[in-house]
Fold:
Amino acid sequence: MRIRASAAATDSIALHDRRDLLGLEGAALSATKAYGQAKVTPKDIDLFELHDAFTIMSVLSLEASGFAERGRGVRLGTDGDIAIAGQIPISTMGGLKARGHPVGATGIYQVIEVVLQLREQAGANQVRNARLGMAQNVGGSGATVVTTILEAVE
Amino acid sequence: MEIARHWRLQRHRYALVGEVCNHCGEKIFPARDVCPQCNAPAKTPFTFSGKGEVYSYSTCTIRRRGSSNSPRMWSPLVRLAEGPLVAAQLTDVEGEKIEIGMPVEMVTRRVRD
Structure:
């Protein structure tokens, strides 16, 4: 396992102080920094453990992290792209909506689940050929975002 | 909350006093002494008119404890006429109908019985 990126970014915690209420600028900054550190693009990511504490956060995280254009994130759901066998599998073991959101422990869960996928230990939920996994943990509805990219090493 | 903090927030809460940036003209609320637009120091007080419009809103149907006449609580984001966005509550809404873009003005109300 190799840590290819670990990048943090922040935004104001008050929604009314955000520059753009219809996006997650903190997540965009964090993801961009992470891609830069890892020298990869969204296309290279095999699975994305995003922060779906609320469904809208999944959509906004996908858009902010470059997997869909602004306002089009929901199509990834309707078109099946986020399924285990899809273009960009998310929450491969149910994510926050299924697991719950043990706040501080959530980020650890997300990384562990990426590792299980990269080690091919995900059982029925295994993403095929998982080489590069991304985990993104969000605090304060987008005020603090940390994006981690891990790579399976033979 | 301790008295000192209440005291310092008086003009902010009841008179909607923020700041204006003398460098770029940005109206700032709440007061923060540094302009968020151009980063210049901004300490000149500015009193907002209190007028604005609804930018977005949520409805909470859970009644606030100890407040017998608030059947619904609306939490709008209000775009003040001078620019800043503030989180607020709505009262005296005619016909209980709220719309994005609806004009509003700042008032004070007793919340607890």
